[in-house]
Design brief:
Length: 171
């Protein structure tokens, strides 16, 4: 079990950034593969995908303009297992990826992911005022983990804001 591949290229509409892979993702090699993770359900309910995709189809979302990476590559049971050193290294790697590939929007799937990336605290959902990488829109959304206590409909509503944002960006 190990790191899972990024699905990333230039010209993405959205680059989704998670904390790190789950144990299940590390075993399967696919993003958001834990059966309790609601990521693909949320994308579909928010109207970002025409149907509910399966984790094994994560690479095919590149065709929709969506990519995947994580701030930390090592799979763990929970984000609490990630060390400060791993976050520091991951932050530098992630900033370099974003600067290189220049997605239109980077969606941080979890406030904590964005806080570790940006060094900021007490951030709100949605677009962040001052992006770390100038010219790239940073959007903070709730984690899709089954451990999150928000209602699925409330999480999907925030992801609908992401959809509307992407649709408002000139092609």
């Amino acid at each position: 079990m190990g790191a899972i591949p990024d699905h990333i290229r230039e010209g993405l509409d959205i680059l989704f950034v998670g904390y790190n892979p789950s144990i299940r993702s590390g075993e399967t090699g696919h993003h958001y593969a834990n059966p309790n993770n609601r990521f693909y359900t949320i994308l579909h309910q928010a109207g970002l995908t025409p149907r509910k995709y399966r984790p094994e189809e994560d690479a095919t979302l590149l065709e929709l303009g969506y990519g995947f990476t994580n701030i930390v590559a090592r799979p763990t049971r929970t984000a609490a297992e990630i060390t400060k050193e791993e976050y520091a290294e991951g932050r530098d790697i992630l900033r370099a990826k974003i600067a290189r590939f220049r997605p239109k929007v980077v969606c941080f799937v979890g406030k904590g992911v964005y806080e570790e990336y940006s060094g900021r605290r007490n951030v709100n959902w949605g677009v962040q005022e001052e992006p770390v990488i100038p010219g790239v829109i940073e959007f903070v959304a709730p984690s899709s983990s089954g451990l999150v206590r928000m209602k699925l409909s409330d999480v999907a509503a925030i992801f609908r804001d992401l959809k509307e944002l992407v649709e408002s960006i000139p092609k």
